[in-house]
Amino acid sequence: MSRLLLIVNPAAGMGRGAALEGDIAHLYASQGWRVTLCETATAGDAARFAIEEAASHKLVLCVGGDGTLSETLGGLIRVPNAPPLCYVPMGSTNDLAQSAGLPHDPLEAAAVGLSGRPLPIDAGTFNGQLFSYVACFGAFTRTSYETDRALKNRIGHLAYVLSGLQELGRIESYPVTIRCEEEEISGDFIFGSVCNTRSLGGILKLPLGYENLRDGLHELIMVRQPKRATDLGTLLSSLLGGHLDHPLLVYRQITNAVFNMPAEMPWSLDGERADAGERVEIMNLRHAYQLMIPNK
Q1: CB 185 within 8 A of CB 250
Q2: Which residues contact residue 140 at a Cβ distance below 8 angstroms, ignoring those fewer than 6 apart?
Q3: Nearest Cα to 54, choosing from 20, 89, 78?
Q4: DSSP states of 172-190 as a string?
């Protein structure tokens, strides 16, 4: 009998995570699977469940937002010959789910574990700490982890938009030097990210395909300090249009990067706050895990 490890954040999606447990368990049981249910209660639970239980299961199914996903992966990559991961996104932006083409309906997303196919996906490390799809700093970075969680649950992505608008008044630039692929890039930047996704913040769409999620490369995107108000307008237009050739943008595909910068810069890993000193090293982990995606 096939065994499913079902890791659920019951608070995700305004409590819908808990409500879905029974339906998902029934879906798999009806197909002859034996289900092990693990509910998260505190930070670190998802990683612990994956480390302790994944090896004895054929599939891991994670129900929750980006934070729960990142935690689950943090445990899963420590398991030798780990089983594939099926993901039911219940967060406010769900960038990785959009990038992988996962269904919006939770039960349809859960069923991908039964009918889909595993795709090797890259992940990354931030000074040794795992992240699934993005490490970023600067403008709107605070929005991802300062926005009230109850507000996120109540009005979803609009919460990020509203909080982001409030942050417009405190955008500042940071002097940063990046060393990557035998190149040094320096300047004052209002935003920087290293990501493995086709969508950022549910708004910015990157001109990438599925193959870019597993190519052993991360996308480095840096935004220089605008000198004029008109520059900001053309910059936003380029970003929203998915164009990365604006003069204020630095875009590279990299395997690793070292950031040297002032201390106490606000970083975010998959929407959660990350503390860093004056040096950050980010590395690509090629084919770190297998994600179940729909057959197309």
Answers
A1: yes
A2: 164, 167, 191, 201
A3: 78
A4: --EEEEEEETTEEEEEEEE
Give me 27's structure tokens: 């879906």
CB distance 67 to 272 below 8 Å: yes
Q: Give yes or no for a contact between 57 and 7, defined as CB atoms under 8 angstroms apart.
A: no
Into which CATH architecture does domain 129-286 fall?
Sandwich (2.60)
| CB contact at 8 A, 60 and 47 | no
**Residue 212 structure tokens:** 């870019």
**Residue owning tokens 């349809």:** 108
When pLDDT is cut at 50, 70 and 90, the band that residue 194 belongs to is very high
Tokens of 194: 């290293």
Binned at pLDDT 50, 70 and 90, residue 163 comes out as very low
Q: How many CB atoms lie within 10 A of CB 176?
A: 20
- Yes or no: domain 3-123+289-293 corresponds to CATH 3.40.190.10: no
Q: DSSP assignment, residue 168? A: G
pTM: 0.83
